[in-house]
Every structure is written in structure tokens, then in C-alpha cells.
Amino acid sequence: MNRISVVGLGKLGLPLAVSLASKGFQVVGVDIDERKVRAINNGISPVSETNLHETLTRFKDSIVATLDYDYALRNSDVTFVFTNTPSNPDGSYSTRQLESACREIGKVLRDKNVFHVVIIMSTVLPLTCEETLKPILEEQSKKKCGVDFGLCHTPEFVALGSVIHDFLNPDFFLIGESDPKSGRIVENIYRKISDSKIVRTSIVNAELAKIAINCFLTTKISFANTLGEVCEKLPNANANTVTSILGLDHRINAGCLNAGLGFGGPCFPRDNKAFNFLAKQLSCQSWLAEATDKVNAIQVDKVVEKVKSRLKGKGTVAVLGLSYKPNTETVEASQSLEIAKKLSGLGYKVKVYDPQAMNEAKLILGDNVVYCNSLQQCVENTGLCIVATPWKEFKHLKVSVPVINCWNIKK
Ligand SMILES: NC(=O)c1ccc[n+]([C@@H]2O[C@H](COP(=O)([O-])OP(=O)(O)OC[C@H]3O[C@@H](n4cnc5c(N)ncnc54)[C@H](O)[C@@H]3O)[C@@H](O)[C@H]2O)c1
């Protein structure tokens, strides 16, 4: 089982493909985007991610990209599927790309007479694999899941900016399996990656665990932000000190407990909404998920109110950081970007700087803000600075004007 195909070579799929290549697997990547396929075969990464370009260059002999499902599946024993599942307006995930990928996979499996395992990596709602994807695979292949081919769901708990590191060093591997043979095959692959704990369970448990983990983490973030607001109003209380004390309790753990801006990015906001959607569909109350979203929605306005009270008139504001978190160019659902947008909408002159996300931000902020090439240029001639994304380089900020340090980052 040394030959693996990866379908969907995007922000997650390509880092997964190079991570597998770095562990000695021969990887065939499939995408419908010809430009991506060509770039990868030329040793150029079409997506930006920490260490991706270096790892792709180093292991380029172990990776080939193609548009051809037939070639990919015939030259592999298992297929990881990492296409996107964008949110629908009702909070559920679209499975359009996954369905299309499974149709193509099923067609090839029809003529393949070796047991092949299909591993769904994308985030999906519980029962998607069983009720939507398995029937497509069985219909197209004319074969039986669990007998002629296997289906697994192994969600990833990686963060943009550290995707390769997180793939190779997970807290645990989670394998939802259609049958023990398929689970064993996936377990053997993961054993070659790391000796982290492996949990094998049903597919539906794995589907639910993935969104439940993100939902729980967003609950922690909103709680920390509520605590932060209380601390601001309580004489001499310090949010960082209080949350770090909470983090010492092993039942709580320190992760996702920094009081600061709310959560953003391509996963947390939508996974919380998806959990809420699921609960409602099952006639369960999901008050916590709703409250978490409400708390998150007011974080940007809290910063805007601080600007209004600290800067008399409509002066110039420097917004430092636009990505939704450090070490990524992603600005999707970024609260930092939202602050810049709101302030500019209110008539402030807004100058912005981000070490990586300037191009992405321009697509959304357009001509409404002034783009600066450096931190120094951004803070010059401003009436107030906002440290919106806690990039390391902002720790050394020295300015004479008031600073709203959303994350209390210090040297
Ligand atoms: N971003 C995160 O931090 C994170 C973390 C864990 C899980 N996820 C999940 O991972 C999944 C993928 O996310 P992403 O950010 O990598 O998406 P992406 O949009 O960056 O990449 C998806 C890729 O799939 C390709 N594709 C689409 N349809 C295809 C098809 N039929 N056949 C072959 N290729 C096809 C696209 O061209 C694209 O290259 C999502 O379900 C997401 O929720 C994301």
C-alpha cells in the first residue's frame, strides 16, 4: 500500500500529498484545475503554505499530478479525497465537488479488480459518507462497499499556516471506517507517518467528532472573549493572566483561550454554523453554538467603539494585520480585515499592512484603504494603531500614538 492518490490539490490536499511523499509514498495527485496540475508537475506550488514549496521541490520525484482519474486510481491502492465543501446558505456543507469526485472514482473502480480504499478527508455533515457518497461509489462502480472496496472518513485537525507540520505530528489520527479491513489499511498508512494515537470508529462518529471539536474550540474562544470584556471593566483585572490561569487546569487546557478578536478563517465560523444546523435538523437545541456566534459577531464592533472613543474626529488609523491569523495569507472571515472595512466605511482614513495577506486583502478592500509596504510606513502619520492579527513582527511595535493591541501581544 505504498501508492496513494490524492484528489483535490488545494490548500489541504497538496500539503497532504507532499507530506505523504515525504514519508516514502508514491503519490499521484488529481485535480480538475489544469493550471494547478501543470504548476505542480513543474515543481511550483500553486498554493501558499509554510514549507510547501520546499517539500514539493525536495520530493518532486515521488509526486505526479494529473487530470486523469483513471491513471491516478490505476497507479494507487488508496485514494484520499480532499475537495472543498463550501457552506450553503442554511449552514450545511455543499457536497457537489465530493459527489463529482466520487462519480469519477466509482467509474474507474468498476474495472479495477483489486480492493481499493476511498478516504474522504473533507469536512462533511454526519451521514454524508453513508447516505450520499457511498451510494454514488456503489452505483458507478457496480460494486459493494466494505466487500469490493472500502470507504473511510479521516478528518484532519490541521491549521492553515502549519498544515504540513500538523499532518505529520497530529495529537491523534481519527479513522471512521466502513469495515475493519479498510480501517486496517488506513491505520497502516498512518503508522508510517507518526506514532500518534489512532482512534478507529464508525464513519458517523468520525464525521460528528470533526465538527464537534471545532464547535467546542469556538465555544472556548467566545468564552475567553467574554472573560476579556469582563476583565476590561473590572479594576486591575488582566485578561491574559486570568486566561493563563484557566489554561493550567488540565480539564480546560490552554488552547483557544486567548482573549482577543473573534474566530475567523475557512473552518471555525462555518463548522460552528454546521453544528447548529445539524442540531436543529435533529430537533435538538444548540444554544451554546448560537451564543458562541453571537459573541463572535460583536468583537469587531467592540474594537470600532474603542477607536471612536480614543480618536477624536475622523483621523487616520493603521490596521496591522489582515489575515485571520498569523502565518497565512488567508483573509476569509477575518475579523482584522472586517475592522479595516468598517472603519473605512465610517469615514476614517485607513492604512493597512500585513506580512502575507496584502494581495488577498486587496481583492476585498479595493481602493477603500491605503496599502503600505512595511510596518513602519503603515504606522507613520497615523492617529491610532490597531494590532489586529498577532504576527510576530508586531511585537516590536514602537509608536507614540495610542495602540489598540487586540491580542495584548508583548515582546
Ligand atoms: N482550511 C482548513 O484549515 C481545513 C482544515 C481541515 C479540513 N478542511 C476541509 O478540507 C476540505 C478542502 O479544503 P481546501 O481549503 O483544501 O479547499 P480548496 O478549495 O483549496 O481545494 C479544493 C481543490 O479541489 C479541486 N477540485 C474540485 N472539484 C474537484 C474534482 N471533482 N476532482 C478533482 N479535484 C477537484 C479544486 O480545483 C481545488 O484545487 C474542505 O472540506 C475543508 O472544510 C479545511
Topology, pairings included?
Elements: E1 3-7, H1 13-22, E2 26-30, H2 34-41, H3 52-58, E3 63-66, H4 69-74, E4 78-81, H5 96-110, E5 116-120, H6 128-141, E6 149-153, H7 163-168, E7 172-177, H8 180-191, E8 197-202, H9 203-233, H10 239-248, H11 268-281, H12 287-297, H13 299-310, E9 316-320, H14 335-345, E10 349-353, H15 358-365, E11 370-371, H16 375-379, E12 384-387, E13 403-405
Parallel strand pairs: 1-2, 1-4, 2-3, 4-5, 5-6, 7-8, 9-10, 9-12, 10-11, 12-13
Antiparallel strand pairs: 6-7
Bound molecules: nicotinamide-adenine-dinucleotide.
Write a structural description.
The protein is an alpha/beta fold. It has two domains: 3-210, Rossmann fold (3-Layer(aba) Sandwich); 299-405, Rossmann fold, CATH 3.40.50. The chain is built from 16 helices and 13 strands. It has an eight-stranded mixed beta sheet with strand order 3-2-1-4-5-6-7-8, sandwiched between helices. Helix 1 (13-22) crosses helix 3. The longest helix has 31 residues, at 203-233. The model has no long low-confidence stretch (mean pLDDT 96). The structure holds nicotinamide-adenine-dinucleotide (NAD). Nicotinamide-adenine-dinucleotide (NAD) binds at residues 7-13, 30-33, 36, 82-85, 97, 100-101, 122-123, 156, 158-160, 266-267.
Task: Give the gist of this structure.
With 411 residues, the chain is α/β, with parallel strands linked by helices.
String of helices and strands = EHEHHEHEHEHEHEHEHHHHHEHEHEHEE
What proportion of the residues is helical, as a percent range? 40-55%
- Poorly predicted regions are none
- What's the CATH H-level superfamily name of the largest domain? NAD(P)-binding Rossmann-like Domain
Provide the gyration radius in Å: 23 Å
Report the mean per-residue pLDDT as an integer: 96
